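[User]
Protein folding is very new to me. Any chance you could explain this protein sequence and its structure tokens? I have pasted everything here:
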Amino acid sequence: MQMYLLALNPTDSVTEGFLPAARRLGLAVTVLTDQPAAHRAAAGDAYDGVEVIECPVRDFRAVVAMISAHRRPDAVFSNSDHLQVHTALAAAYFGLPAKDWRAALRTKDKAEMRRGLAAAGLSAGAAVHAVELPAGADPATVLDRQDIRYPCVVKPREGVASEDVVLVRDRSDLLARCAEIRARRPGDALVVEEFLPGALHTLETLGDGTDRRVLGGFRTRLSPPPYFIEERLTWEPEQPEPVVAQVLAQLDALGVGFGACHTEFVVDRGVARLVEVNYRAIGDQCDLLLADLLRVPFFDLVLRVHLGEPLPPGPWPAPGRAACLAYPCADRAGTLTAAPGAEDVDVEGVRLAYRPLRAVGSRRPLHHTNRDLLGVVRAIGPDQETVDRRVDAFLDARTWEITP
């Protein structure tokens, strides 16, 4: 069977998750990408036997043309935030199982997501007040016509990885932040939305178009304001049933139900309010931990539903283990001059894996986003106290040095 995988840059999700899963399923894989050299140079054996073809993957018409001129597809798949609409349109063209392209668009476009949820008429408490700043529009003119509730958050309408997501306290701060973001992203539309108080949680789901399973989620610790860098994620196997029901109802309103989905939300006085919906598997190696933690082959199942197979009968057993991920993060611009290498440790029943995310010798600015992460610790153990203690001890015993 032939699978086409659409990708931009190589990611751990693809190289350590989906490509090995495709090999286990006996699939012939063709990677369509606008960065073929990066994929051909990817480390390890993940790309052994994988065909890599250059393609302007942000243009679904070019994707359709490339596939039509090549081999008949059995699945068209992507785990990229940026390519879900294009992948859905290409898969639908060939009559293959796919996400609804409209749902993929609603979740990628944060302004459209807010409009879609408001139009659905769900609980008024779940609604989030948001204002769109079109590309090229004068923020001051637009904001003067709108009711802005401070504090609020400004973000790119189609951004990822907490890039240019900033908390602002008043109008002058908002205008200044808009100007900064526009200087970096002159062609991007922005969204200004009310700040949502409460702890940040995630819900990880997987659906085959008929059946949808809740896999669990994470509680996320963020960096101090005004930025929103994910510093630590702690596994939460269950959320209160009313909260889960509210999140799923909002996903239904957006049309989300096929394949993997990573949803971020806060709970404010018992009401679940969506922060954003990423219509793909969770990233930053959380999906790798999820695959280790669950007693089901996560990556294989994601690909199977895109091949038209139903999810296996449930309910699936709960893992019965504790887990977390922690990310050492750069606090300044400069060159990374010292950092630990990859390690695997097993102590006190805790399996801990550390993987660098930035090479020693690399020089980078400070982004105030997840791009500042230096590495990731994944840990699974018998209870949360032990897992947290071993992760803290691991981080305390190692050094990351950045030279300005």
Notes: Residues 171-184 form the longest helix (14 residues).
